[in-house]
Amino acid sequence: LFVDGPLAAGQSVRIEGAQAHYLVNVLRLGAGEAVELFDGASGGWRAEIVEAGKRAVLLDVVAQERVQAMPPDVWLLFAPIKKARTDFIVEKATEMGVRRIRPVFTRYTNSERVRPDKLRAHCIEAAEQCGGTFVPELDAAAPLDRVLGDWPEDRRLMFCDETMVAETGLAALRDAGQGPWAILIGPEGGFAPEEAERIRAMPQAVSVTLGPRILRADTAAVAALTLWQAALGD
Ligand code: SAM
Question: pTM for the complete prediction?
Fold first, then answer.
């Protein structure tokens, strides 16, 4: 169960609302029973239920049970699309293990509204469902120009470019080698020509094709993460 951290042994935690309902009425847990808590950054902690009330459950954190296995240092940058599909992207990115998720506004991005608190809830849910304990950092949406403007020197950028015809997938990534990475996926309308030009001109950019067919942005995000894992995942 996710709790806003940080968690530590000996701490007492109070769970309310839907999470309390889940423990008491769905899992039918009671005093003395164990629950695994995670705060998204330090791993999994064993906690014991002290009191299981209708409205709240009190727990004592006993000890750390799982040390946080950090996912590879890869960010996912994507242009927000329709809400359900944006939710899908952040859920799959969390399951597949990214360190940081950065929604970016590009010239042809057509959905302005991105609610970081809602997206973070999807990341937490995805981490809980797949039994993970790491919740990616989630940035507020920012213009692509600004994000690229202060791009870290040492972070390579996997530019998923549907106009690439040559087979520049695995080989290009492998040649670029290990280290901090980011994956960039464009909006439904793709990147504007001047955007693509600017990205290609970056020394850190590695242009990559995800195959001969044009994928929807959410499909492309999963395909790109899979390709990156196949080439460089540890
Ligand atoms: N510009 C395309 C068009 O107008 O038909 C559509 C863009 S596609 C829906 C959204 C994003 O997914 C693209 O900007 C790109 O980042 C990624 N993408 C989709 N298919 C791809 C492919 N075959 N290779 C590389 N990237 C792809």
Answer: 0.91
In order along its 234 residues, the chain shows pLDDT tens digits of 999 989 999 999 999 999 999 999 999 999 999 999 999 989 999 999 999 988 899 999 999 999 888 889 999 999 998 888 999 999 999 999 999 999 999 999 987 678 888 999 999 999 998 888 899 999 999 999 999 999 999 999 999 998 876 666 788 899 999 999 999 999 999 999 999 999 999 999 999 999 989 999 999 999 999 999 999 987
Query: Is any atom of ligand 1 closer than 6 Å to the C-beta of 230?
Result: no
CA of 224 to the centre of ligand 1 (A): 11
61 Cβ neighbours under 8 A, 6+ residues apart: 7, 8, 9, 10, 11, 12, 13, 37, 45, 46, 47
Whether ligand 1 lies within 6 angstroms of the CB of 80 is answered as no
Let me know if 98 is exposed, middle or buried by CB neighbors in 10 A (0-12, 13-18, 19+).
buried
Residue 162 CB less than 6 A away from ligand 1: yes
Cβ 134 vs Cβ 97: under 8 Å: yes
Those residues with Cβ within 8 angstroms of residue 207's Cβ, 6 or more apart along the chain or in another chain = 159, 161, 164, 168, 172, 200
215 Cβ inside 6 Å of ligand 1 = yes
**217 in ligand 1 pocket by Cβ < 6 Å?**
yes
How far does residue 124's CA lie from ligand 1's centre (Å)?
Answer: 28
